[in-house]
Amino acid sequence: MPMHLNQLAWVCVGGACGSGLRFLVTSWTLARYGTSFPYGTLAVNVVGSLILACLFELTRSTTWFGPTLQMALGAGVMGGLTTYSTFNLEVVRYVQEGQVRTAVVYGSATLCACLLAGTLGMALGRMIAGR
After folding, report:
1. Concatenated DSSP letters for 56-75?
2. pLDDT tens-digit readout, 46-55
3. Structure pTM?
4. N or C terminus of the chain: which is more exposed, having fewer CB within 10 Å?
């Protein structure tokens, strides 16, 4: 199999794993916290921000991840796990339904928590890499 098709296959496998993980996290949060707030989407975006930033730092600082694994984990797993389009739809829906306060709280919480998670993920990657 040519290299680009091999990489594509691994990205697809990673995407399936990430999508499955997103389904599990969202289902768990719905069962635990209900539907009053999109906790599942918030959780996967924050966790995804942390993990993707950590992976980014590790791939910059170490040789642990080859190009195919980087794509499988980054574009595949993290692409399947995180869900900006769902976040966007939920915020727009809240605004359209007149729940502007919820839209602002959710949007702000997502932005702040994901930026913090990304910062922590990079620090974690540097720490794991010994930098």
Report:
1. HHHHHH-SSS-HHHHHIIII
2. 999 999 999 9
3. 0.81
4. N
